Predict the structure.
Amino acid sequence: MRIDIITLLPELLHPFMQLGVCGRAIAAGAVAVECWNPRNYASPPHRIVDDRPFGGGSGMVLMAEPTLAAARAAQAANPDACPIYFTPRGTVLNDKLARELAQQAGLILLCGRYRGVDERAVTAFGGREISIGDYVLSGGEPAACVLLDAVLRHIPAVLGNANSAEEDAFADGLLDAPCYTRPAVFEDQPVPPVLLSGDHAAIKKWRRQQAEQMTAQRRPDLLKNK
Ligand code: ADE
């Protein structure tokens, strides 16, 4: 999968792309990522990329021209990709959407900064609008990191069998069961005995019960969507 990211802060994304699931995906050749900076598409000598909002108000707005020029360059390089614009008004990202996006040939991620992007550029870009939650970020870059992590783990060859996304929380619409590792007793707390029993059917049943109980207690809304 090819992923292009339109961002004024590629330096913020670079370390993220070198490590963890994203680093593994790139190293495995499953994913290629490129950043496009609207500042490189702004007019010299000052290369201004933002301006005050028409109608007044606080904050700055990313200008349509350099943003769209960067976006169009990315779209030309990745023509079959699904375009995405990060904004708090978008559809909230969940595991179902992450799985859907993992099926795409490519993604183009438009990160706003400051107040947002001039609406005319947003319209011309034509992206799917995605939020990562009901709070305001100072830019789309953290949202891009979250989306990349959530999406890339669903690409075969990225996680490998040892850590299958099919065993993740949400894989079957439920939160995950609690997990434990050595030692078998920690500060007087033993691991639930079933996990040491070697009885795989019993372990599977226990995990399912725990997942259902945890979901009913903490996120009953998830059960309604099942
Ligand atoms: N940009 C600013 N806030 C955001 C959010 N909550 N999700 C995605 N992009 C954003």
The pocket of adenine is lined by residues 86-88, 112, 131-133, 135-137, 140, 143 (CB under 6 Å).
